[in-house]
Amino acid sequence: MSTATVAPPAWALKVEGLGRIYGDPSPESVPGTGPESGTVISPATGAVVAAWDVGFEVAPGEALGIIGESGSGKSTVMRCIAGDEDATTGTINLRGVGDGTVDVRTLDPSARRGLRLHQLSAVYQDPAAGLNLDVTAGGNIADPLTAVGWRHYGRIRERAASLLRRVEVPLDRMDDLVRTFSGGMRQRVQIAKALANDPPVLLLDEPTTGLDASVAAGVLDLLRELLEETGVAAVVVSHDFAVIDLLTRRVLVMQHGRVVESGLTDQLLEDPQHPYSQQLVAAARG
Amino acid sequence: MNDQLTARLAGPPPQPGIFDELSKREIRRAMLSGIAIPGYQVPFGSREMPVARGWGSGGLQATLSLVGEDSRLKVIDQGEDAGVNASNLRRLVVSHVGCEEETDTRHADIIQSRHRIPEQPLRDGQVLVLQVPGAEPLAGIVRDMDEQRRMHAEADYAKMWVRLYEDVVHNGLITAAAGYPVLVEGRYIMTPSPIPRWDVPKLDRSEAITVLSAGREKRIFAVPPHTSVVPLTFEDRPFEVEHTPGAACRLCGSADTYIVQEPAADGRFTTWVCSDTDFCRRRRTGDAPAPAQPVQGETA
Lengths: 286, 300
Known about the structure:
The complex is a heterodimer. Chain A has helices at about 75-80, 110-120, 125-130, 135-145, 155-165, 185-195, 215-230, 240-245, 265-270, 275-285; strands at about 15-20, 50-60, 65, 90-95, 120-125, 200-205, 235-240, 250-255, 260-265. By secondary structure, chain A is an alpha/beta fold.
C-alpha cells in the first residue's frame, strides 16, 4: 500500500551523488577531471570539480571517516552537508527531517540554517570558525541553547557547566573569554557547543589538526568517548589516518574530488587496494 | 507627462517652508508600514532638516508629517517642555504649520520626545513620536548590516541573548539602561529611543500609537495601540526599573514618578525633582491623580 507509513530509515544521514563545482556547473565540466586525469580542473570549461558523485550513509552511533590529502574535496563535502555552502548536485537526507524523505538541499535558507540547531552540528579545525572568541566559554554554549528557546539563566548555566565538565574544561574557566584559552581548550569548548542540543549528526572537520600531538591525543580520546556514549552519527574528515583509525569504523578515501576506495577502516589500513590509498597508508606508517 | 503626474501627486502647490507634501506622504507611508509590522524598521528617505541629524531630525520629520493646523503639539526634552531643544523644535513646527503649542500631556494630540514618555498614561488618539539616535538593536552585536537584517527576518536573536547572558556573567545583572531592548508583539526585537527603563513598561499595550523615527539612520518603526512590548530578560532575572529608596521629588513629593538628581547650591547632588515637569506641576496643583502605593522598583 502506497499510503502505509514508511518506517524511519536505519541511517541518520544519507548523501547521494553529491557534487560541488566551482565555476561553470554544466555537465561539460565533469569529463577530464578526477583521479584518472589527475586533476580537478575541467579541461573544457576551466571549472573546479571539487567533489563529484560522493555518496554514503551513516547510522546512529556510527562514525564514518573521509580521508584524503589537501584539495581532495573532503572538506567541501562536509561544508555541503553542514550547509556552509550549497552543493551543485546530489541529495542530502537526514533521518530527523521528515523521517529521511526530505532532501535538505530543497529547504529554504532559513530552514536549512535551522537544521544546525537541532539536526546537525559541525566542529571545525579552527575554533574561531565555530566560536566567538570574545565571548565566555559559557556564553558560546548559551548561543545554541538560547537559539532553541532557553530563557532561564540558571538552567543555561547548569547546562553549559555540565557540557564543559563533559569535555573536561575546568569550570573555573567557564566565565573567561575563549580568546584567553589554549588551542586544545578552545577545541573542547567548540565540541561542547556542538553537543549543546544533542544533535543526531555531528560533523568533525580536522578536529585535532591544529593541535600539538599530546593535546590532540587528549581531544581524540574525548571524541572517541563521546561518539561511543552519545549514539551520534559522526562524519570525521581528516588527512591523518591515525585520527581516522582511532575514531571511525568505516572510511572513504577521496582523491581529486572522487571517492577512490571505501571500506572498513581496519581492513583498509591492513590491505589498501587503490594505489592512492596505499600511498596514504604507507605515509601514515611512516 | 511625469511632471504632471508628480504635480498631481504633490497636491496643492508647495508652501514656502521646510517640508514638501510629497516627502510628508512618503513618511506617512513608512509610518503606516511600521504600524502594520510592529517593531520592524522601515527604511525611508530622510530629508535634510533645519536641525542637525542626531538632534531630532527624524522625530521632526515624523511630527511635520502628522500635524495639521488644528493639532495640539507637545515637545519635551528629557521630561521638560521648556528645554532649549524642545522649545525650538516646537516653535519651528508651530511656525511652519500653524498648529497649537501644548504642554499638558492630556490635551496634546502629538507628543514628540527623545528621553522620556510622559507620566500621564497616553490615551486613544494620541501619537507619541520618539526621536531615535540608534535604531538598530543588533548594531553592537554584529557589524554586518546584511546579517542584522537576516537576523531580524528569521527572528534569529540568539546572539542578543548571548549578549544579555554575558552581561549577567560579567556584571551580575543586565546593565542596559537607556534604550533597553524589547520584543514587540513576540516577533521583532526593537530598541526604544533612549528612554529610561522606567518608561519601557509604558510602551506595553499603550492606548496611543508610538512612532519611532531615526533621521540619521533613515528608519521609522512603530508600536500600534494594544501591542505587547516586553523587555528582554531571563525568566529568573526579573526586569527592574530605576528606583532610589527614600528619594522623592523636592517640589511635589512624588516617589512614584521618574525623578532625577538636581544640583544644590553647593554643587552637590542631594535633591531630586520630577523629570516630567508637566506632571509635577499638576501634582502640585492637585490636578493629577495622587500617588498610589509607593513603588517597589519593580514592574514587569
